[in-house]
Amino acid sequence: MGRALLYLIFSLFFLSSAANHRKVEYLKLPLLHKDTFPPNPSQSLSSDLRRLNTLYSSLNHRSIRSAKLPLTSGASSGSGQYFVDLKLGTPPQRLLLVADTGSDLVWVTCSACRNCSSRRRGSAFLARHSSTYFPFHCYDKKCRLVPNPRGVACNLTRQHSPCRYVYSYSDESETRGFFSTETTTLNASSGSAVKFKKFAFGCSFEATGPSITGPSFNGAQGVMGLGRGSISLASQLGRRFGNKFSYCFMDYTLSPTPTSYLLIGRSAQVNDSKMSYTPMINNPFTSTFYYIGIESVYIEHVKLQINPSVWAIDELGNGGTVMDSGTTLTFLAEPAYRRIVREFKRLVRLPEVNDPTLGFDLCVNVSGVSRPSFPKMSFKLSGDSVLSPPPGNYFIDTAEDVKCLALQPLAAPSGFSVIGNLMQQGFVFEFDRDRSRIGFTRHGCGLP
């Protein structure tokens, strides 16, 4: 399918003082997927594993240290990523960022150059060329929202003592810089430009390691954190324009590729009466991830015998299930995974393909079958709701005439299950922070 141009649509609220009524305005940002989606299944699995290792190590590190520190982004693995243009500074400078629901901090590659003629346009944010750039002082209370480097004292008497941060990745990659404020400019659906002042972000002057400098980063200049924490883009805009957002990932197999979108704020396209809701589950060791509660799994309407403790968050913050847009496949706690695979093997009436290079435990030969049929799986969630994705969301093409069950086992006891973006296709998911719930529906996914 080549490069697919998607759109990231931000929905914002404005109160009209003249008419004294609410006026809805949309901000539209082009969202680029640079590779064929999904990538080669083995590459996708490898990238997903790197991403999960990063997120798991961040959670473990967090449980040992302060629970107030934001988690490290796992967006840099390059699997199933969505890239968005962000205009930052005055005058605006355009940068390509990875959109990541699994992290909070928005950070960009920065340069302090004065004469920047040798710099390729868009390769970094030129801080000295913006009249609205300003780093937080190290004693500003907002400096506590980011992890600070050890051994660097804050000089309270110096006027120019910037707030320094350091983010470390599981492969020892690091980004370091100043936690700062800027003006960001977003294009409204009306065609006008809307400016947001005092937007908090990380200005990175040093980045090392393959995760954030190598080819897996796909040439991006940073990460747009969309997590649940207070410094994410979703939170910063949400505080001003409504504390909820929703998104829809369209079926990647359709041609031409339909538009996918993200809405921040209240959208008339989301019909409450069509929504099923499940509570957001809180993990005391992280404020970033969007946890849901799985109660049971059904295949062909038959409940599988899986101990409910498999899905629980334990006293150390391990376990549970996270909704994540940056992970392609779905990873499930191993006892549940083994039971699910065993049931699918019992029910699927197609010849199995035993090829360990594919990386999946259940693959079948569909040659000569124009419309192969697969058993239906559903997840019973907390709040008496049921998520029933179509079989195309979890049986995917991995080779010619071969389809595989796109699930993976989660063996790490300190990890958590992840519902990846393939499993989320074709649904509108609404994240309502005020009511601490996640809604989902098949209705309205694909509306412009």
UniProtKB/TrEMBL annotation:
A Pfam family of this chain: TAXi_N
Molecular-function annotations in GO: aspartic-type endopeptidase activity
CDD domains: pepsin_A_like_plant
Signal peptide span: 1-19
Protein family per UniProt: Belongs to the peptidase A1 family.
Protein name: Aspartic proteinase NANA, chloroplast
Record key words, sorted: Aspartyl protease, Glycoprotein, Hydrolase, Protease, Signal
Residues at the active site: D100, D324
Gene3D superfamilies xref list: Acid Proteases
Organism of provenance: Nicotiana tabacum
BP GO terms, sorted: proteolysis
Keyword Signal in annotation: yes
Domain Peptidase A1: 82-441
